[in-house]
Design brief:
281 residues, 19% strand, Surf1/Surf4, Surf1/Shy1
Amino acid sequence: MHPTARRYRRGVHRYRFLLSRQWVILTLVAIALIPTMIRLGFWQQHRYEERTARNDLVSTALHAKPVPVERLTSPGHRVTRAEKYRTVTATGTFDTAREVVVRRRTNSDDQVGFHVLTPFVLDDGKVLLVNRGWIPANGVQTAFPKVPAPPAGRLTVTGRLMADETTAASGIKNVKGLPDRQIMLINSAEEAHRLGAEVLGGYIQQTAPQARGGSPEQISDPGSEDAPLNYAYMIQWWLFAAAVPVGWWFLVRREIRDREEAAAERQPEESAPEESESAAV
């Protein structure tokens, strides 16, 4: 047999184990993992870009110059992503007689309580919904809680403009049949129906003036999402995808080495009886 053909047959024999059931399954799993990990890396890249864009929008909005609220919203208006978190001002009076509380809201320490939502009647008669902050849920939650009063008389408030809350966006179910003056979601359309007034779209989270005695507790800034974490995960998944074929090849080489060592150990044992028979003759 030609030496080249002999080497070819020897090479084929070395890798014949790849056709075994165990190695076929291992190879198919490796092949499936590579595109899966690549797709997960692209998903993390998408999340990174989303979070980075959201952080940029929030930062731009929070640092923008305050403007009168009616410059950005009006009755029936849907607050856009670019308008959300913008600092706005409004002048008027609080209508505490028609104040409501928003159930199942937490503060910065994850304590469950209420948000205080107070209609703020503007000079032109329209109503702005003002989330004055968080109060603890002390006592029975079926009763209207004791709410600290806002400043009386005409004043100017400042706050962050927010979009109407929906179940789809927040995950909070809009439960019906709640106790009097309690709601689940802040929605200007529903509040306009309840109040029988023109209500500006969205609402504001009040930042000034500060509440006396620190209650209601002011809602903190939205902060930034951890976009760099998604970037790290993206790199990690792509490194895993690159490592799969390298790991597969390492296992193949180790299997070949183990088989050749086992064959070399068997060879002296098989030749030993032949040597004994030759000596006896």
